Amino acid sequence: MTELVATTPGVLPLPDWAKDRLGSLKGHQKEDLVDGDEGAEITDVYDEARAAVADWQTTAGLHRVGEGQLRWDDMLAHPLCVHDAVETRGIVRYYDNNNFYREPVVSGELTFDGDLADDLDAFVEMENAPESVQAVVPGPYSLADLATDEFYGDEAAFLDAIANFLAGEVRAFPEVETVFVLEPSLVTAPPDDDLAERASEALDSVADATSADVVVQTYWGALTEKVHAHVLDADVDAVGYDFVTNHEDNLYNINEYGTKDDIALGLVDGQNTLVEDPEKVAERIAWVESNVPAADFETTYLTTNTELFYLPVNRTKAKFEALAEGAALAEADA
Amino acid sequence: MSDNREQFRPADHPNEHFILTTVVGSYPKPKWLDRVREQYEDPDGPFDDDNWAEAADDAARVITDEHERAGLDVVVDGEMRRNEMVEFFAERIEGYEFNGPVKVWGHNYFDKPSVTDTVAYDEPWLVSEFEFTDEATERPVKVPITGPYTLASWSFNEAYDDDRDLALALADLVNEEIQKLVEQGARYIQIDEPALATTPDDHAIVGEALDRIVADLPEDVRIGLHVCYGDYSRIYPEILDFPIDEFDVELANGDYEQLDVFTEPEFTIDLALGVTDAHVAAVESVPEIKENIKKGLELVPPERLTVSPDCGLKLLPREVAYGKTANMVQAAREVERELDAGEIEVGTSAAADD
Questions:
Q1: With an 8 Å Cβ cutoff, are A29 and B106 in contact?
Q2: What pTM does this model have?
Q3: pLDDT of A47-59, one tens digit each?
């Protein structure tokens, strides 16, 4: 029987006290956002906040615990926005949300940085570090989609460069159980055939850089059939599907083309304060299982469909609980 | 359309041409007002409702006066009484609840409310704010109101089938509020719909909501629509069919890269153009702003051009906000003089002749 793993795609809200303190320490304009060279005072706040969000997750009973990506002022664009070879320009809209990030413009070679690994190191080395750690990285295609290239010259070369850069970052990670690779742009801005193949190879590069299980999380709809097929070619352990936004097309993709041996189900809405009952979550798990005739997954990850920074803290914690309790109920029912 | 614009030309306007100068709405609050609010909101603090009301009145007077000194033709009180563009209204509309702050960008947050029940009109939202500002100045006063589509999409919707249903229910409440404002003498209403840029495919919902908003309003009430930070090719030319007099758009931030979007088909309503960047803490020079104003003249003739900052200025230092506003007015007056003198070619005929 499948192992149910309750977890999230990360990028969590900061605890409210940390919102206040970091706002005062850093400021509120675009030049005040994180640049990778924060001083001790700011670093201390992040360390404390990281411990707090770990506690939220373990208290709720999630099976994989992340560091929350709390320093990602620019959400998925973060790894580029702090890179020395990248200039940040105006603030631009983050997908179709009321959220903004600094436009990263790549103006030089994307060499190894280590920013993501540093956060994970701080996390696994902290007191009472959780046992089962999950890392989160933006998917190469999404990161390329969020950025502007003024160095590599064409779309394909840029995607390759981003993939190599991310692979280098992932290679420097401490030991983690899973790596969630967030690829919403594969849905919102589907690549054409050539680029889809490269996007799949880009996922290979990232996945090959770690011995952890790799989950490619897609959201804000369903992949087109062709892009889905390309993603399945990638050497990853699971694909994540957004059953909140579009369960029909995702179900169709899975039944028509199959999926990996493991699967991630985005069953809980990461962008609405309405909290799903654990019974509802368990029902949705059963619904997917009964509607995917070939379902015999080794591991089923239960997650929110999207990152969670969209929610207030109380509802974020409530979503964690819904996932963990939903998983427990589903186990009991099985 | 828009023959309701001339009522805002000041009696002592120095030039033949008239480029209407105004602001989008929010303005940096005096530091002392923030301190009073903190103490007022602290349950153990020394200030009560009356203290807060007095401080808010003082701030509204100060900023209205600051707008007058900057020379604006149409002023706003800088939204001194409003904490945020959705929260303020959600606190006054039945059906909303609050759960805590969520991120907008960087370390800027808002208390994004949840709609947990049917929305309903309770007490007036802005009537006393308008009456106060109107008495505090000789200039015409514009009233910015967060639009129903934005009120809907920047809330968590727990109660309605979809955001359209919620937006239309809210549009009826906005109409009720505007009727009350008009009774008190308001003649310039700006509907702020920044959320339209987040989900541009929903322009039809915004259009439907606007139809409800303007229902039964007198002709001399000027209705502007403000949108910012989006890909305008996805809502143009559809916005030309909206029942509005003026479309107010942020373009200085993107260095007018999207100006061309509005040339085909011809821009047939009035344009309110952002001519200073609300997210750059440096005051643009008068010559710089004049060049930006001339960008507007590529789309509409001067008698259909309003100029304002890209967006609300509230996140800037106050002296910077003032500098931008004063320089903008000076730039507009200089452009008018040059138009009067025939030194500037008006480019709209070019667009029309193409």
A1: yes
A2: 0.85
A3: 999 999 999 999 9
